[in-house]
Each structure stands twice: as C-alpha cells, then as structure tokens.
Amino acid sequence: MSPLSRPHDERLLGLFRIVTGFLFACHGAAKLFGFFEDAPVPAGLWPYWWAGLIELGGGALVATGLLTRPAALLCSGTMAYAYFTEHQPHGLLPLQNDGESAAQYCWAFLALAVLAPTALSLRGTARRLASALRGTRMSAPAPTGP
Length: 146
Fold this sequence. Notes:
Elements: H1 7-33, H2 48-64, H3 68-87, H4 94-97, H5 100-115, H6 122-139
Helix pairs in contact: 1-2, 2-3, 3-5
C-alpha cells in the first residue's frame, strides 16, 4: 500500500509542488531580472546568474509538473551547493549562517524528485486528456455502409 493512498494526499503534495516551484522561480526572477527591488545579476556571472537560471527554469518546471524529477533534482543540488559554499562557511547550523531557506529548498526538492507528484500538473492533465481521447475513439460506433 502506497503511503499516499488517499486521493487528497496526492492533491496536497501537488499543491506543495506548485507552491515550492513558484516561490523558487520567484528567486530566479529576482536574480535575473531584478524583480522585487533586487538589482539583476550580470549575465553569465558564476555562480549567481546560473543559479538564477536554474531557479527560474527549474522552479517553473516543478510548479507545472513537467520534467519534475530531473528539475527537482537539479534544484536540490543547486541549493546544496549554495548551502555549502555560501552559508556553511559562516557557521555550522542554518540558524547560525542564514542558510535556512537553502536547506529547506534542498530537502523539499529532494522529496519532490523522489515522489514526483503528478496531481494538479500539466503532465497529469495531458495524460488524462490523451486517455480520454483514446477511450472516445475506441468506444465510437463503427461506421455502417450504405
């Protein structure tokens, strides 16, 4: 029996995926385009511009449910890199080094990469639509001759 056996569990996990991906994409938009009163990072600047690109693109993919596993894994790795290179040198624990969001995003995306919920996703919607179309074609009556 799956740990997500109840229908509302899948929908709740789908909502978690959407919110997490959207918030992560907002971080990327702030880095790349200067949204939310931040100055944009210069194009190509390692690692900040590339992190912004991953945050925006990966967050959007996760939020929509397209390529969820690889996008979430890439986002998780990006946050692990950010934590260990930008935050951890300033203190051992996230509360000491201001790395709470990096640590939380890292673990949230790792969980999404493993679980890859399709509820409320474009991919799941496309599958249901394709299945419905196949069912319609199969159940259509055979044409009769004159």
